[in-house]
Design brief:
Helices cover 31% and strands 22% of the residues. By secondary structure, the chain is α/β, with parallel strands linked by helices.
């Protein structure tokens, strides 16, 4: 059994398969999940695990070269907006409907237990060298 890092075997395996440029959607329980991408559903109950916990765990494991979120996050969920802009100074913002369209191209969807609106981000994987 792994001692450190992500213990969820489905998530750990999915992360190991990602390559440069692949998209990873980290989303709340209300985000529509498109058919196609691999889905790892971590939601246990409302708020558990939180968007922040999952995002922090993923960022410890991934190299991210870009991130996209819904522009509405600033008004509708200032806590998520602060978290995202703190992690991603160059955060790309698009209308929520456009973000939903972009999720169809994601290779992996990680669903959190977050129950606040617009706690969603599409990450673009980078390389470690």
């Amino acid at each position: 059994m792994k001692k450190h890092g992500i213990l969820n075997r489905r998530l750990s395996g999915a992360l190991a398969e990602l390559g440069h440029g692949d998209g990873v959607l980290v989303c709340d329980v209300g985000m529509p999940i498109p058919d196609g991408p691999r889905v790892v559903d971590l939601a246990f109950r409302a708020g558990v695990p939180s968007f922040a916990e999952v995002l922090d765990g993923l960022l410890a494991e991934l190299v991210v070269e870009g991130a996209t979120a819904a522009a509405e996050v600033h008004e509708a969920n200032p806590a998520a907006a602060g978290l995202l802009t703190g992690h991603f100074p160059g955060l790309h913002l698009v209308p929520h409907e456009r973000l939903k369209e972009l999720t169809a191209g994601a290779r992996l969807v990680v669903r959190t237990g977050e129950a606040r609106p617009y706690a969603n981000v599409l990450l673009r994987c980078g390389v470690f060298f």
